[in-house]
Amino acid sequence: MRLNEEVYQAFRAFLGSKIEHHLSEEKKDVVLLDAHKFCIDHFSHEESIVLLTALMPHVNPNFYTSTLQQYMPQGGEFPEFGGVKGKNHRGILPTGETAQFILGGMNHTARVNVLGMLSDDAPLVDSGVLYLEPIPEGEPLMSGKLVMSQDFVDYYLTGMRSKPKFSPNFPAQEITTEMDWDDLILTEDVKEQIQELKVWVENHDMLMNEWNMKRKIKPGYRVLLYGPSGTGKTLTATLLGKYTKKPVFRVDLSTVVSKYIGETEKNLERLFLKAKNRNWILFFDEADAIFGKRTGVKDAHDRYANQEVSYLLQRVEDFNGLVILSSNFKSNIDEAFLRRFNMIVKFPFPSRVEREKISAKSFPGHIKFEKNINVHNLISQYELSGGNIINVVQYSCLKAISKKTNVIERVDVMKGIKREVEKAGKIFNEVY
Fold this sequence. Notes:
The protein is an alpha/beta fold. The protein has 19 helices and 12 strands. Helix 5 (96-104) crosses helix 6 and helix 18 (386-402) crosses helix 19 (410-423).
């Protein structure tokens, strides 16, 4: 349900009555809560009040400041109400104490109930709608700022849930493709394993809930794709998301990994919290950088590096979605991770027959080739990965465009092949 003007005004009146009741000398009136009016989506009316408490500054920046001023025109402190000032925001931002006051006043039992509604396993927090910001050590837990996830802010204001943008707090970017499964040339063995993975993505909810397997197996699924660069690992992950209608986020490990002790874990924790219960696919490309083997402990740096790997192992196991790791070499991944993967898929270097198929599918349909030249057979004679072949196709097509023709010439194809071969540090020998 989207927030409408009626709910907004009702909440404002409800908040005002709570403040007035608390500040009045007699305090005889009992403030009643219209449960039906404030019920949002599948949350209880009390949870809906907490949700609205976090949402209001996004609707009206002056909401809490103006409401308090109405009942406290002379100003003064009101610690029972909670609230903090933001770095940029000029008004009052709600804290856990604000939610406690609105729902429970100074009633100890009611305030403790609100504490329970903001615990990690409570519906509002577990579903990723909102959370309490961590507070400095020694201060009351509920003095933490009540933060609502931006995608849910967008949902309750516009009806559409946005996807997170790349930032230090979310070091991942969504990846998409215009290609189809038919464009991906794989061995039959790999195809069979990818089909198994598709079955899990489409049916894991039924497996866990209707078949009651959640008591016996871990909630998520962990997959390792390994093989030489350009063999289709990233495209496979992207296509998997495309055809199961699940966003695929490639994690930027250069942003995640930090030389400062403890920062890598914090960066990953923010990522996993954002992804929790979102039905996303997390793709760690070149995962060796962060999931690599633990080393012998020679100094404090080694000890903390090993702690990072141990933390990752536990965090990935606890994640309730699909995590795909990609690596050029299986041997680079820590053995503790390997034992916990649900599936390990080897992407072999394409054979000559497969290279010819990749070439045939990669060139645009409207182009022509120089007479008496079998370009696909020519390309297949060189040890090129699928990614290399795409680069050759791009190079030769651009050359044709620059010549204002749709004919692909052998000389341009050979130059493209030469570039790819030498890029890999090999000696190019032209085949005639």
